């Protein structure tokens, strides 16, 4: 069996809640957005299926195209 905290379990051996998963995703987007901004990017093309990326405007980033 996986060790405690592994296999997708949250702290205490419980599955993370939907809110915890969403916060983790948003934190990852925030870090990525900061890196892109530090690299001098503003208008970006995203290599994925279209998806609403909330909060990137707060970093002065604009998604101009989705490339599949």
What does the model show?
This protein has one helix and two strands, in the order αββ. The protein has 68 residues and is α+β, with helices and mostly antiparallel strands. The chain has one domain (11-66). A two-stranded parallel ribbon has the order 1-2.
SSE layout and pairings?
Elements: H1 18-38, E1 43-46, E2 62-66
Parallel strand pairs: 1-2
In short, what is this structure?
This protein has 1 helix and 2 strands. It is an alpha+beta fold. The chain has a two-stranded parallel ribbon with strand order 1-2.
Which tags fit this structure?
68 residues; alpha+beta; two-stranded parallel sheet; 2 strands; 13% strand; elongated
> Can you write the helix and strand succession as a string?
HEE
* Major β-sheet annotation: 2 strands, parallel
Q: Order the strands across the largest sheet as they lie in space.
A: 1-2
Rg value: 16 Å
Instruction: Let me know the number of strands.
Output: 2
Q: Which residue ranges are poorly predicted, with pLDDT under 50 across at least 5 consecutive positions?
A: none
Strand content: 5-15%
The overall average pLDDT, rounded, is: 77
Rounded to the nearest angstrom, the distance between the terminal CA atoms is: 38 Å
The level of helicity is 25-40%
- Structural class by sheet pairing and helices: alpha+beta
**SS summary, helix count:** 1
Number of domains: 1
Overall geometry comes to elongated
Q: What multimeric state do the chains show?
A: single chain
């Amino acid at each position: 069996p996986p060790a405690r905290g592994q296999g997708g379990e949250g702290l205490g051996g419980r599955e993370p809640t939907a809110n915890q998963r969403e916060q983790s995703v948003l934190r990852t987007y925030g870090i990525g957005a900061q890196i892109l901004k530090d690299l001098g990017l503003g208008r970006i093309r995203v290599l994925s299926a279209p998806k609403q990326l909330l909060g990137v405007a707060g970093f002065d980033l604009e998604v101009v195209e989705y490339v599949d």
